[in-house]
Design goal:
single chain; about 350 residues; three-stranded antiparallel β-sheet; alpha+beta
């Protein structure tokens, strides 16, 4: 019932009744000039057509409100695009009928004239027509909603959608500027909608630590025994021993590299981290192709908090810890020689600092 009141359909019905009452009164009022009656009826019929057209649009909006509330839909203004196009068609037909009634001409007369002008109209209203049909695709396909974070390739738009209208989509960027895009841009070009990330409840971390390849080596048995008591190191050792079991170099016992053990430590660390998704989302630590700037060890996981400041804080805290742990494995992060040069070979020795780690 609330939607019926909001749609103002009752007002349209009341207007129809009122205009019919005025038309009937013309029959009952005596001594009216015939010419006046003819003109009055033309005006009444024109108003009647306009009211009916407006009422049809209100009925369509009421149907859209009920449909959008269905549990299987649960999306505001699901048919907004169709209603926009329908409104254009209904009002165009109503306009032709109103003019034909007022001028006492056949509607075909005006339709024929419009047909001759159609080529000119298509050129003049090209952008409007493109945006109108793009709006149908955007709204009915649920490509963009108000409140979505989108990034549009080839434009400055990178922020939250504040308005989706017939012709324009407005995006408030993170620097508080507003970018206005033609609606058809979202159909013609690719764009990223981050709504799926928020709905899934996980935001991806995909970042690498670049190891100095000169610091990668085998760990001695004594070194393994010394670092075994560090938290999570027992799990990392188990994972690495399981990984190298059966390899040719392990015929006389496990041969463990500091980079391999570090990679397993990172995995064990992420698996125990309370702010990282541990099931249902990808969690892996992998070694990528060596580069001139070092050997990449990439973290691929998802945080449990998708909010930007919290996501950045979680990511920074994880990498702060991992960079601080590199000397424990006798590893170094790659840094260009112009900024950093190795003091001597002793810098490659495992650095425990046991008091700080246990």
């Amino acid at each position: 019932f609330h939607e019926i009141i909001e749609s103002r359909i009752i007002g349209s019905f009341a207007s129809v009744v009122a205009i019919l009452a005025v038309d009937m009164a013309l029959y009952w009022l005596p001594n009216l000039d015939k010419e006046f009656v003819v003109i009055a009826r033309r005006v009444i019929y024109a108003i009647f057509i306009a009211i009916i057209a407006h009422m049809l649009i209100r009925v369509a909006r009421l149907a859209d409100a009920y449909y959008s509330r269905l549990p299987t839909v649960n999306r505001k203004n699901a048919f907004a695009g169709y209603i926009t196009v329908g409104s254009f068609v209904v009002y165009s037909i109503a306009g032709i009928l109103i003019v034909s009634v007022l001028m006492n001409k056949s509607p075909l007369y005006f339709i024929t004239a419009l047909g001759a002008m159609s080529a000119v109209l298509l050129i003049v209203f090209r952008d409007t027509l493109l945006s109108m049909f793009a709006n149908v695709i955007v709204t009915t396909g649920d490509l963009v909603r108000v409140g979505d974070w989108i990034s549009v390739k080839g434009s400055e738009a990178d922020g939250y959608v504040t308005e989706v209208s017939l012709n324009v989509v407005k995006v408030q960027n993170f620097d508080k500027t507003v970018t206005s895009l033609p609606t058809y841009t979202l159909v013609q070009n690719s764009f990223v909608n981050w709504r799926g990330m928020f709905d899934a409840g996980g935001r991806r971390i995909k970042r690498s630590i670049y190891l100095d390849q000169r610091s990668i080596r085998m760990l001695a048995k004594q070194e393994l025994e010394e670092i075994a008591n560090i938290p999570l190191m027992d799990e990392a050792l188990r994972l690495e021993q399981q990984s190298v079991a059966g390899n040719p170099e392990c015929a006389d016992g496990p041969r463990i590299t500091n980079s391999g053990l570090f990679r397993q430590y990172v995995l064990a660390y992420l698996q125990q981290h309370p702010k990282i998704h541990h099931s249902g989302m990808t969690l892996l630590v992998r070694q990528l192709q060596p580069t001139p700037t070092g050997l990449p060890i990439e973290l691929y996981c998802f945080t449990t908090d998708t909010r930007w400041p919290f996501y950045e804080d979680i990511q920074a805290t994880i990498f702060d810890h991992l960079f601080a742990m590199l000397p424990v494995f006798g590893l170094r992060a790659y840094q260009s020689e112009s900024d950093f040069a190795e003091a001597d070979v002793t810098s490659r020795i495992v650095d425990l600092k046991r008091d700080a780690l246990v």
